[in-house]
Amino acid sequence: MNQEATQIYFQQGNTLIKEGKIDEAIASYRSAIVLEPKVALLHHRLGDALLTQGSLNEAVASHRKAIELQSEVSWFYYRLGQALAQQGNLDEAIVNLQTAMQLEPTLPGIYENLGNVLQQQGKFDEAFTCYLKAVKIEPNSIHEYYDKLSYSDLTTNQLTAAISCLKDICQQRHDVPLIYTLLGNLLTKNNQIDAAISYYYTAMYKQTLLSHPDLVSNQWNLEQVQGPNFLIMGGMRCGTTSLYEYLTKHPQVVPALKKEVQFWSWEYAKGIDWYLAHFPPIPDGESFVTGEATPCMGSPYSWERLFEYFPKIKLIVILRNPIDRALSHYSHLQRCLGWDRRTFEAAIQSEMEIIKSIEDPSLVDQTFFDIEYGYLLSGLYVCFLEKWMNLFPREQFLFLRSEDFYIDSSVQMQKVFNFLDLPDYQLAHYEKYNLGTYTSMSESLRLNLSEFFQPYNQKLEEYLGMKFDWH
């Protein structure tokens, strides 16, 4: 009788989890445990639910109990490791994740989480090895580790080992374009530019074969690579990721190899051929367009560099209340990268003093970024747009408000498609990308920031002839 009732509570808990009713699910699992206290799976599911609820101490206790009752299940150690990591108990988290790995050495998620914890401890070499193992086990999961592998600071030996490993994977799996892109990134890091370009072109071919097979089958001629028709140039933390995702869903938009190529800012020394390798060849007379979305609006001299090569390019600019943008920027660096341990208020105060002493904020050099992260600087839109619009004519720009974009994405996308001379193409659902949780801001700090940005915002409205109504 107990077994039957236990099963009912267990299934009820599972259903409630799917419905997002976490508190009720926890109650169901606990009722099941009262009837059958020695079933490890019940404690495990309770631990998962408690972890979702944010009850870390109870979650850890439940996962420990599951392991006590059944000690050979890798998934139990894996979830305990995750709970301990969230609790901040990194050493014990590593021990449990390593145990999970020994019990089940072919699960890429275990290596990913172990790598994340090792990275938190500053053990970047070991973390990199874990991410590479995860890709080797399951190449299709590479999107989970792509950024970590692309942007890690690697020694020469690590680079050599990683390049060799990825070349082996390419021999086995020809159908995963991102592996070729990653290999191009690592070869770029290793200053093997010609080899990187070759892999980028291969990745571009394979990616386009999946997204636009007709374009590939009709004509694929690398001599017809002309580069981007459009650039979403910013601002940073203003919605560029969502905008690019919606735009590249249009059947006549062929995505670049990466959303952000970063050429006009950080990678300019790699040369224009390196940049062009990130774009598909589009034959004359075809109605396709391609482009990228590097928020380079605030990168010194990027306007001159772009104008030299693509004076007719169409430029899309999405702008957000600079106060909210600054908070989002700060929260993103803390949450995703673990950078900047100052409070938001301390960081803002420090940067504000420096900016007040700068004659032309659009031309700050690296010494500024050795000290600050640009939370305020990146919101001084008009200082940078004046430079851009001294070169590019007004008709080559489309300006959007982030606030309007998120309220009614479909209307704003109509403007984008019209600007690019494309027919309208609406999605059934506009998912929000790259969202995050934010640190709180005091009213006094918000008022201080409002006063700081007010003259810049007013000048922006006058310069563009647009109202932004930011407060």
Description of the structure:
The chain is mainly α and 471 residues long. The chain folds into three domains: 1-105, Serine Threonine Protein Phosphatase 5, Tetratricopeptide repeat, CATH 1.25.40; 130-220, Serine Threonine Protein Phosphatase 5, Tetratricopeptide repeat, CATH 1.25.40; 225-464, Rossmann fold (3-Layer(aba) Sandwich), CATH 3.40.50.300. 59% of the residues lie in helices and 5% in strands. It contains 23 helices and five strands. It has helices spanning 2-18, 22-35, 40-53, 56-69, 74-87, 90-103, 108-120, 124-137, 146-150, 156-172, 177-189, 193-211, 213-218, 240-247, 272-276, 302-309, 322-337, 344-355, 366-371, 381-389, 402-407, 409-419, 443-464; strands at residues 230-234, 253-255, 289-292, 314-319, 397-401. It has a five-stranded parallel beta sheet. Strand 2, helix 15 and strand 3 form a beta-alpha-beta unit. The radius of gyration is 25 Å and the shape is globular. The termini are far apart.
